[in-house]
Design goal:
D-Maltodextrin-Binding Protein, domain 2; Dipeptide-binding Protein, domain 3; 21 strands; 3 domains; alpha+beta
């Protein structure tokens, strides 16, 4: 990437002005000559867009990230940045109106017609839509895509496999989806980034039949190049909807936040997005409202929490878990580790949802040390017999270590010897493989919801398909989280909120789930992230949607 013209101006003009002050017209001519040469180089060497251009859009845009793209196959992609690429390259039956969380049709023509029992969804689909390879889109292609999502068995397959009984096209224009049981959030689930239509000619149905380095959908961009550190998107000229404001997007993956930061500061990329370190975000945010660049901030859906292994002797008593939950100074972590770039979290349901209930927030102050001491002492712990906690975190997540250190130091100091914390770390991939084995007594993890509904922060944490009070959970979500929490009452509440179609009644059930969470404490919420993107001053149309997606089609260069 070439240095932007505005940076050349910034570097050359001050010298030229200084020359004028000295009366050195020879110096002025020299700097003007150098400036003109640089200008010609910038204009002559800038890549020519391969697609047509629109007003105010004469060049491709470059987005930098540290995210590693494992796959672009929607039936196997579950990572955040891959989901954002699918959001821009593909279309789903439903999406959200820009700037809101209002569900609107995309490949569908209207919101679904739902049977009285809540099991059958009848959906009319668009006509006149084609895939990137020229294949016509219809209800059969949509049914193929959804069935492939389930049957190929990729990482996100459970999202549909757990809910759907069947998907079939009744005609070219009508899709019928039948659920195993009512699911109140199902329409929102259909807006999940991976539930895009894919060309039946380019993909196959079968276990493990994935295409990680290609994508052929119906969206406003088509994939033209996929490499280990770069991805190239071109505007799809035959897109059925509104055309993008730019001819294409180049995605560059950097090996570290430092490299991403430096590339943005020097103007080598137009936008820096996911992820920079807190100090780098702080540095860019402080000058983001000046003439150098733009800082765009949005509420985040990513939460960080502690998973407590209820099979471990240290956490078998609810009183101990309750004491720990109210002993953590979340505001201290917010300031010391993240420079204010996260929000304290007091429920598994983040505050982006109105139903979020701050069940772990003290009535006064940042923590309730006195109550925590009382609970620990009733559980039998003293200064001579302290609670011993083995606290694990991910070694490859830069902020996990500092946050764990702050938690340990505060708890040991404020609880005056009632708790002793031993810190250990391990690489995240190894940790994820070991969680279901019960390896870790307490582990710091993070989670981003798959669809815009509180259910995606409840069911994947608290549901247990098989278990007992004596043995804990043996099969279900709480096993994969490393908690092994089992509660028949919780299972019933989770099931009720999923099936309840009345929003007011469902909200009451979700509130009850959070109340029970405060009693049983299989997980301790810590913080929720804010979302940040940084754009050069001449880039327009940068926005972070409430659903955490960044649209590429609105981006242009002024």
């Amino acid at each position: 990437m070439f240095t932007p013209l505005r940076l050349l101006l910034r570097r050359l003009l001050p010298n030229c002005i200084r020359s004028l002050g000295k009366g050195s017209w020879r110096g002025v001519r020299l700097y003007l000559s150098l400036f003109c040469c640089c200008l010609l180089l910038v204009i002559g060497c800038r890549p020519t867009p391969s697609g047509p251009t629109t007003a105010g859009s004469d060049s491709r845009l470059a987005i930098g990230t540290t995210a590693k793209i494992r796959t672009l196959d929607p039936a196997d992609a579950l990572e955040l940045f891959a989901g954002n690429l699918l959001y821009n390259m593909g279309d789903r039956l439903y999406t959200y109106k820009s700037g809101t969380t209002d569900l609107v049709p995309q490949l569908a023509t209207e919101l679904p017609k739902v049977s009285e029992d809540g099991l059958v969804y009848t959906i009319s689909v668009r006509t006149g839509v084609i895939f990137h390879d020229g294949t016509p889109f219809d209800a059969k292609a949509m049914a193929f895509s959804l069935n492939r999502f389930i049957k190929n068995g990729g990482q996100p397959a459970f999202l549909l496999a757990d809910s759907l009984a069947s998907v079939e096209a009744k005609s070219a224009k009508e899709l019928v989806i039948t659920l195993k049981k009512p699911f109140a959030a199902f329409s929102d689930l259909l807006a999940f980034s991976g539930l895009v239509a894919v060309s039946p000619k380019a993909y196959a149905i079968g276990p493990g039949e994935f295409q990680p380095s290609q994508f052929i959908g119906t969206g406003p961009y088509k994939l033209t190049s996929f490499g280990s550190d770069s991805i190239r998107l071109e505007r799809f000229d035959q897109y059925w909807g509104e055309q993008p404001q730019n001819p294409g997007i180049d995605i560059q993956t950097f090996s570290s936040p430092a490299n991403l930061f430096n590339a943005f500061r020097t103007g080598s990329i137009d936008i820096a997005y996911q992820s920079l370190n807190p100090d780098q975000i702080d540095a860019l945010t402080k000058v983001g409202n000046k003439d150098d660049w733009q800082a765009i901030t949005g509420s985040g859906s990513n939460i960080t929490y502690l998973s407590l292994n209820l099979r471990n002797e240290a956490f078998k008593q609810p009183a101990v878990r309750q004491a720990l939950a109210i002993s953590i100074n979340r505001k201290l972590i917010q300031e010391r580790v993240f420079n204010g770039q996260v929000e304290p979290l007091y429920s598994l349901v983040p505050s982006i949802f109105e139903v979020s209930k701050p069940i772990f927030e003290p009535t006064s102050g940042d923590v309730d040390v006195a109550k925590a001491k009382e609970l620990l002492q009733k559980a039998g712990y003293t200064n001579n017999k302290p609670l011993q906690i083995d606290f694990w975190y991910r070694s490859n997540v830069p902020t996990d270590g500092p946050a764990a250190t702050v938690i340990k130091a505060f708890i040991e100091q404020e609880l005056e010897g009632l708790i002793k914390v031993d810190l250990s770390s391990i690489e995240s991939a190894t940790a994820y493989n070991n969680l279901a084995k019960g390896t870790y007594p307490m582990f710091m993890l993070d989670w981003s919801g798959d669809y815009y509904d509180p259910d995606t922060y409840l069911h994947p944490f608290l549901d247990c398909a098989k278990g007992s009070v004596a043995q804990g959970c043996q099969d279900g979500a709480t096993v994969s989280q490393g908690s092994f929490y089992y509660s028949q009452k919780m299972n019933q509440l989770i099931d009720q909120q999923r099936q309840e179609q009345d929003p007011a009644k469902r909200q009451q059930i979700v509130a009850g789930i959070q109340d029970l969470l405060a009693e049983d404490v299989p997980f301790i919420p810590l913080w929720q992230r804010k979302e940040y993107a940084f754009a050069q001053r001449d880039i327009q149309g940068v926005r972070l949607e409430p659903t955490q997606a960044m649209p590429f089609w609105s981006l242009s260069r002024s």
